[in-house]
Design brief:
671 residues; mainly alpha; Glutathione S-transferase Yfyf (Class Pi), Chain A, domain 2; 5-stranded mixed β-sheet; two-stranded antiparallel sheet; 26 helices
């Protein structure tokens, strides 16, 4: 017996023209989900992989595709009414997901499947699924399950509310005079003239969108402008998000307690590679000890430099001036001005360069889809095909996925950078689909080349690493292990590993050509950039330690006595030498508190693995197929069908070690 309902909704919701049509689309998907669950429970012949796991997996696929696409609309749709409807419908889908996760009949049916002949990927899927049921509380009494369901649904509502508040909160900074733009790139000053109408007519107005925020914090000589921009950015969604965050922390605490865990952090790590919050704390303590002395040396060097540059009375550099003085120090110490590389990174060349590199690296081919319907005219659509030295021509022409690029900011759009899986792949039945949601300069249509900083370029490649994990890992037999379905603390490995490629002068020179004269970026400039970038590594790690510890502490301390402001300042002062700036309300816009919750450590944990992986690639030939093919086959293609630690051993032929990470930390100290 096979499933009678196709896994995904047939129509992408962004093709719909009204909130009513979107509601009907969701109702149809939920009805098909219910049919699949009925089918799962109607098997008189006993539980098998085909009669039980297949309809269950199809039900999961329906919820996954429906929820992911609604989440996309909530984040990017230009019509506020559609965003509002998507958010409301997301809650219905989440309720169905919570109900499925607490459905004892489904749990018992899955538990009854004889697995003696199952392949390892299917075994892993079943084991993780049954564990997730137990961690959700499926084996608790009915009253407890009812309470857990209500709490999970409330947590979903609060998380959506928190994210939406951040998405629609754009701070502004009104300049006192054009002189405050001193130090900023010429193209920035040219594109930010006085407004011609409205409340601030005749004034220059900047926003907290990344194309404004990042250049100001890096290049603006005006300390007053930097501070105003810093506070405008760090106070987004404040005070709107204080109450939702406080309630969310209380809800998560109660969920953990009902399930027998002392804190949410203990529950959140129970099915991760890290295994426990105690292991997490030991990992963080080790990084704390390893980086404090060198980070203090970095800070003192920058402070002394600032004093030598005329700031003799400066007692400390505060958080709002950190990026500026770091940039000035790198210019003087390493003969590197990060403005010098921007002309080599116009947005359209970076996009083409990333796509070309990834095509060669992973033996795929990208083809634009000219007639695809999207949610905004600026979005482009691409189909992914197999490529490389495949003997079977038909295999080379096989479409294995589709992705969408939504790369520039606009009103109402999510302000962050992310990869969004949309459709889970199921081998032989449907190809995976995903989207990149970014906010890079350019795309305005007014001739602005959208000159990127190098950090923007690596961010692009980082997010594309997630996207390729979703596509290449999305060729599984089961939707539940398709794509980025590994443990949560393995998710950032492929993306962070890929970042390292764009420090290579030869790879950059393939596409990084001056937007005016077409000259490729000089290798000497890239080398100076890399050397300058190595300075501040310890500080960067400690910044991550600050975010990680705050995420952990907010979920470990009791919500009734937790002071969000006091904890934020305490954790900041513990890890960072730059002076605290009063008025910082980072927690109100720190969306990782709702996403990764207590498990923000994954960025640091995965950096260790990513650098270990990158060492396998030959420094003089990063695209050597012997390694790139093995990486694709052993790390990306399995998706979530293997445990993360098994993926590590398969590629390295050993367990991970911190050696590469330790060397990376030491780069800044080399003469």
């Amino acid at each position: 017996m096979t499933s009678t309902a196709a896994p995904p909704p047939a129509l992408h919701p962004w093709t719909l023209s009204s909130p009513d049509a979107l509601e009907a689309w969701v109702a149809d998907a939920l009805a098909r989900h219910a049919v699949l669950l009925e089918e799962l429970g109607s098997n008189a012949g006993g539980a098998t992989l085909e009669t039980t796991l297949r309809p269950y997996d199809d039900a999961v696929a329906v919820l996954s595709a429906t929820g992911s696409q609604l989440s996309l609309l909530n984040s990017v749709h230009p019509d506020m009414n559609m965003r509002d409807t998507a958010q409301a419908q997301l809650q219905k889908v989440a309720q169905a997901g919570v109900a499925l996760g607490l459905n004892r009949d489904v749990y018992q049916a899955l538990s009854a499947i004889p697995v003696g002949e199952a392949d390892p990927g299917t075994m892993h899927y079943l084991e993780r699924t049954l564990l997730s049921y137990r961690l959700a509380g499926v084996d608790r009494d009915q009253d407890t399950r009812d309470r857990l369901q209500a709490l999970q649904e409330r947590a979903t509502t609060l998380s959506l509310q928190f994210g939406r508040n951040v998405q629609e909160s754009v701070g502004t900074v009104v300049l006192e005079s054009a002189d405050e733009l001193d130090g900023l790139p010429e193209d920035f000053r040219t594109s930010h003239g006085p407004r011609t109408e409205g409340e601030h007519a005749g004034k220059i107005v900047l926003t907290t969108e990344f194309p404004d925020y990042l250049p100001v914090m890096t290049f603006a000589r005006s300390a007053g402008l930097r501070r105003r921009m810093f506070l405008a950015y760090q106070r987004r969604a404040f005070p709107q998000n204080v109450a939702p965050l406080q309630e969310l922390l209380s809800v998560r605490r109660e969920i953990a307690t009902l399930l027998g865990f002392e804190t949410w952090a203990d529950l959140a790590t129970a099915d991760q590679m890290m295994e426990s919050s105690g292991n997490m704390q030991r990992f963080l303590d080790e990084l704390d000890a390893a980086t404090k002395e060198s980070a203090d040396r970095e800070y003192n060097a920058v402070l002394e430099f600032a004093r030598e540059r005329g700031e003799r009375a400066l007692e400390a550099i505060d958080a709002s001036s950190r990026s500026f003085w770091m940039e000035q120090f790198r210019r003087a110490r390493f003969s590197f001005d990060s403005q010098d590389v921007r002309p080599y990174f116009p947005y359209h060349r970076v996009e083409a360069g990333v796509l070309s590199l990834v095509e060669q690296l992973f033996r795929v081919r990208f083809e634009p889809v000219a007639d695809a319907e999207t949610w905004h005219p600026s979005v482009t659509t691409w189909d992914v095909y197999q490529a490389g030295q495949l003997r079977d021509k038909a295999a080379r022409e096989t479409r294995i996925g589709r992705f969408y690029l939504d790369m520039h900011p606009r009103d109402g759009k999510d302000k962050w950078f992310s990869a969004a899986p949309l459709i889970p792949g199921i081998r032989g039945r449907q190809v995976p689909q995903a989207a990149l949601i970014c906010n890079f300069p350019g795309g305005s249509g007014d001739g602005d080349p959208g000159l990127l900083q190098h950090s923007d370029v690596t961010t692009f490649l980082h997010e594309f690493g997630h996207l390729m994990h979703a596509i290449l890992g999305g060729q599984q037999a089961w939707a539940g292990v398709s794509g980025i379905a590994t443990e949560g603390d393995f998710v950032e490995v492929p993306s962070q590993m890929l970042e390292e490629f764009f420090h290579d002068p030869a790879l950059l020179a393939r596409f990084a050509h001056h937007y005016q004269n077409g000259e490729p970026i000089p290798a000497t400039l890239v080398e100076r950039m890399n050397r300058a970038g190595a300075f501040g590594i310890s500080d960067a790690v400690r910044t991550q330690l600050f975010y990680t510890s705050y995420s952990l502490d907010t979920h470990r301390l009791h919500p009734a006595t937790l002071d969000l402001d006091q904890l934020l300042e305490e954790d900041y002062r513990r890890f960072l030498p730059y002076q605290w700036v009063d008025g910082n309300k980072l927690y109100a816009s720190f969306t990782h508190l709702t996403g990764y919750s207590s498990n923000y450590y994954t960025y640091l944990y995965d950096k260790v693995i990513a650098l270990d992986f990158f060492r396998e690639f030959a420094a003089d030939d990063l695209l050597a197929e012997a390694v790139t093919a093995r990486y694709r086959e052993e790390v990306l293609e399995p998706g979530g069908s293997k445990p993360g630690k098994q993926l590590v051993r398969a590629f390295l032929n050993r367990d991970q070690t911190p050696d590469a990470f330790t060397d990376w930390l030491g780069e800044a100290l080399r003469p």
